[in-house]
Amino acid sequence: METANLLADAGTTVAWSMANKRSIIAVARALNDAAALVLLGADVMDGCYGDSITEMMCDIANTGAASGVPTVLAGFIWSEKPTDGAIRNLRGLHPSVVCNLRDPVSLDRFQLKVGRPANPVADLAFLLRPRVTTTEVAAVLAWMDDVRSNGGRLVVMNVNKLATRALQGSVDQIFADVANHLLAQRGYLHLVLMYHDFRDAQKEAETIGAIHGRILAPHGHRVLKVLGATDAWCAKGVAGAADLVLTGRMHLAIAALGAGVPAVCIVYQGKFEGLMQLFALEDVILEPGRIDSVAPVLACMGRALARLDEMKATINSRLPLVRKLALKNVEFLRAIGDVRPGV
């Protein structure tokens, strides 16, 4: 939806929908009135979430391209282990479909495995505008402002079982111990525990709740748990008000980096390496399989906290180019003109 708002700001009327089994029929009906077809590839094109999703997206793209409508697969990642089905589907794309890869690592992987031209871009989420949509998030931001006005520093922590499934040990206990160590060693530090993905399968809310329940009493007043799931706009607002974000969620990391805030990332499925390369932050990546205690996490967080100002300067120096790369996904729409409602 934010993409639609972005394009509307540029004077483009946008019709949008979620991809599902009816999408191909809907696209086919809309193509007579469409000036362009933009598909948000995000993190589903490499087959890691199932070949059926990749196949459906490619079918929709081929339907548009075969009808003569300019068709773009916007800013998607390509992991280190794409499925054979995904490779086959991408190789079967109509020659006129434009593929935009959202980071240099993804671009190299894609061209090696798929063997077709592609453009370097950045994730469209870098263009997201923060917005407060709930009273709770407004209260969280007020608490964070108060901490900062009193000389404190803020870390947003977001941990989920998907990113940490290869972790050796209890996710809840290790990251609670990390929180307690950080709070004990740095009296100026405050934590915001936030869950962003509220799908039942990931149990993110339960993980955050379990970590919060293990915070030692002396530190309790310096920890705030966001009670509800945050949408993308609010998440960027909270991340942007922090000094550092620890997360295993790609788009929360993008929200932080897009607001000029460093992110320590728990990586999985090869999603983060190219993203962090854009900002020269490869040394603040955590591999779950190597986390067997608090030590690796504390070491990585220590490096980040020691270099906060330096990292912020680097991020902000690179953001203008990254935003230009993100805009490359949709720049062609301005030349085409108005996109009439359809799908």
CATH architecture of the largest domain: 3-Layer(aba) Sandwich
Beta-strand segment tally: 10
Classification by helices and strands = alpha/beta
| SS strand fraction | 5-15%
- Strand order in the sheet with the most strands: 7-6-5-8-9-10
- The CATH homologous superfamily of the largest domain: Glycogen Phosphorylase B
Average pLDDT level: 86
The low-confidence runs, each spanning 5 or more residues with pLDDT under 50, are 6-18, 338-343
**How many domains is the backbone divided into?**
2
Q: Give the oligomeric state.
A: single chain
Q: What is the molecular shape?
A: elongated
Secondary-structure element string = HHEHEHEHEHEHEHEHEHEHEHHH
Give the end-to-end Cα distance, rounded to a whole number of Å.
13 Å
Major sheet: size, sense and barrel closure? 6 strands, parallel
- Please state the CA-atom Rg, rounded to the nearest Å: 21 Å
CATH hierarchy class name of the largest domain: Alpha Beta
